[in-house]
Amino acid sequence: MELTGADLVRAAALLGAGIAMGLGAIGPGVGEGYAAGKACEAIGRRPEEAGLLTRTMLVGQAVSESTGIYSLVVALLLMFVVK
Amino acid sequence: MAIDQLTWIHAASYFGAGVSVGFGAIGAALGEGYTAGQASDILSYRPRMSGEILKTMLVGQAVAETAGIFALVVSMLLMFGELKGHTLLEGWAYVGAGLSAGLSAIGSGIGAGFPAGAACKALARQPSASGQITLNMLIGASITQTPCIFGLVIAFLLMFLDHSAMPYYPYWAAFLGAGLSTGLAAIGPGYGGGLVGSGACLSLARNPEAQRPITTAMLVGIGTTQSTAIYGFLISLILIFKGFPESTSYVPSFALLGAGFAMGFGGIGPGIGEGITGKYALDQVGRVPEEATLLTRTMLVGQAVSESTGIYSLVVALLLVLNA
């Protein structure tokens, strides 16, 4: 099988997309889990503040999610946009 | 120097054997070491309970060893099994099998050590609840073994499937990707499931009366952690069985390999993160059992958000497979 330049670029872009999304998902997953864990701990201590704590947890997790979304965007760009 | 096809397959099977038991030995050893460390730690406070603690430690370590034994079995089969030698694909399948069995044993081995270590501590603190603690330890540690069973299934599928009718391109990459997807994605759920189990054991020691809410919350929490392992397993099955046409360029091969990496790595983070959430939640369920419903709900919301990146990975992996 002949390897052309265009094929090489496309193959590398698709492999890169997979690696980008895969590795990029590790950090947010662990970080958001930690945030949720600490929120559960706090709710156990002050159940009457559950609403406030859940809100804070979700805001924190949303910020932590951002790098996962960057990875998703880069993966989609590599798959569908770059030539 | 010409090397014939059978020699390549032979070499690949030995390489797969090394990869399998090499990676597979990491997890079980770390998990058992952690258990032994916790047992020694608590023995220094309660030397009179040495018999009971030693027994729990050994039972827990035996469960953690399962993951390592699976990897060893795959490695033995790869070394001494019969080679078919129809196509060069067989070699890639053996490498994929080694990766799947080896990598998937890491998380389950480490994970099973957590409930075992926690159970040793919990027993010494609350000897009257020993039956319930041991039961929860066994449930937690065995659910933690699920991801490495997925790895074993994929390894067997790759080893014993008839590849003679499959085109070399892109199947070499599909097999490699299948091994990576299940193998890597199993690391997080194994580790995370163990954390939830350890939280449950320690929580029982604090409040043995809250046995029901603790066990329920543990099963819910541990079940959620396993989800990304299931995604990994799913992507591997798609890669093996979808039936890709013979390709005329290298592009589809690398798309499939990329899918394996995306789902494999992508499964690690959510698994660990959801495990951390479950551990803290379980800790509080033992402390304030009357708020168990609220805590379980918050735990599930938090775990669902943590799951999101795993779902992105699943979507990207599926898009890559469809692109191939």
Keyword list:
heterodimer, A: mainly alpha, F1FO ATP Synthase, rod-shaped, B: 324 residues, mainly alpha, Four Helix Bundle (Hemerythrin (Met), subunit A), flat
Top CATH class of chain B? Mainly Alpha
Sheet having the most strands of chain B:
none
The CATH level-2 architecture of chain B is identified as Up-down Bundle
Total domain units of chain A = 1
Helix content of chain B: over 70%
What gross morphology of chain B would you assign? flat
Number of E-type strands of chain B: 0
Taking the sheet with the most strands of chain A, its summary is:
none
Rg of chain A over CA atoms, rounded to whole Å, is 19 Å
Going by CATH, the homologous superfamily of chain A would be F1F0 ATP synthase subunit C
In sequence order, what are the helices and strands of chain A, one letter per element?
Answer: HHH
Give the averaged pLDDT of chain B, no decimals: 95
- In whole angstroms, the N-to-C terminal distance of chain A is 21 Å
Number of strands of chain A: 0
Strand content of chain B: under 5%
Uncertain stretches of 5 or more adjacent residues of chain A: none
The helix content of chain A, as a percent range, equals: over 70%
InterPro entries (chain B): ATP_synth_csu_bac/chlpt, ATP_synth_F0_csu, ATPase_proteolipid_c-like_dom, F/V-ATP_Csub_sf
Organism (chain B): Desulfacinum infernum
Protein name (chain B): ATP synthase subunit c
Domain V-ATPase proteolipid subunit C-like (chain B): 15-78, 95-158, 176-239, 257-320
